[in-house]
Amino acid sequence: MALIVDVFPARSDNYGYLAHDEATGKTAAIDAPETGPIRAALEARGWTLSDILITHHHQDHVEAIADLKQAYGARVVGPAAEADKISGLDELVGDGDTVTLGETSFQVIATPGHTLGHIVYFDPHGRHLFSADALFSLGVGRMFEGTPGPMWEGIKRLRALPDDTLVYCGHEYTQANARFALSIDPDNRALQQRADVVNSLRSGGRPTIPFELGEDKRANPFLRADAPELARYYGLEGADPAEVFAAIRKGKDNF
Question: Which parts of the chain span the membrane according to its record (predicted)?
Fold first, then answer.
């Protein structure tokens, strides 16, 4: 049986996600950005929260842990590398570990950079990737704690996942990401087409999430830091792609 993913807005620009294992009825919140929207989504679906899967320690991803744990007695799983920064964790996981939700298994992949201990959860059977602030639609998270080399290596691991993977990221940043991407990669036809779709969705008040990873591989400059045209844009021909990645990240920071 399948994993059902419910998508809903939280806070000002976060997304909340409920992952529901049909076979067993177990339901996980992916991160805990805000109590009210998560409880409302559970009630609308008639689901009971059994688990909370945390990706990193930032407040807009952990704020509701205590409330939800008290209300539902949910198991809270999170990154071992950030255990000292997150209250209420019951189970610590890291790169290569597996987290089960009923009959669904998530692979844990380390994606350092946005925070040093950031992890993502990938369901290889259903092709669902919960990337939080590691990978956005047409972008990546701001590099608050990490360095370009390890962050690029983590992004490459996500890029290697199947093209038909559906990506559920932490925020609705796609339109702004598209504007930046077009400024440095203006001749990319896949990016142009994607930007048109994004603008249409947002003008209609619709989300751009989830998105197909394969589309992002062709359009997201951060996933293409080893493309010669992006190296040329920054005058870094022949440089290590991690240097190009760093230049793209700095460019987005200042855009």
Answer: none
Residue found by looking up tokens 């369901």 in the block: 123
Q: Is 253 a catalytic residue?
A: no
Kindly state the helix (H) or strand (E) to which residue 106 belongs, with its residue range.
strand 104-110
Q: Is 226 a catalytic residue?
A: no
Q: 230 phi and psi, to 5 degrees?
A: -75, -35
Say whether 118 is catalytic. no
- Tell me which H or E stretch contains 169: strand 166-169
Q: Which amino acid is present at 137?
A: S
Q: Name the one residue in this structure whose structure tokens are 């089960």.
A: 100
- Helical H segments across the chain, by residue range: 35-45, 59-62, 65-72, 148-159, 174-184, 189-203, 213-219, 228-233, 241-253
61 annotated active-site: yes
> Binding site for Zn(2+): what residues are annotated?
56, 58, 60-61, 114, 133, 171
Q: What angle do CA 227, 229, 232 make, to 5 degrees?
A: 115
Residue 57 annotated in active site:
no
pLDDT at 73: 97
128 catalytic, yes or no?
no
Helix (H, G, I), strand (E, B) or coil at 143: coil
Strand arrangement of the beta sheet that strand 211-212 belongs to: 98-101, 104-110, 119-123, 128-132, 166-169, 211-212
Whole-prediction pTM value?
A: 0.97
Identified catalytic residue from 20, 57, 58, 118 = 58
* Token pair in block for residue 121: 């959860």
Catalytic residue among 56, 57, 118, 128: 56
Look at phi and psi of residue 130 and say left if phi exceeds 0, alpha if psi is from -120 to 50, else beta. Answer: beta
Read off the tokens for 181.
């991407």
Low-confidence ranges of the chain (pLDDT < 70): none
Domain covering 3-253 in this structure, CATH number: 3.60.15.10
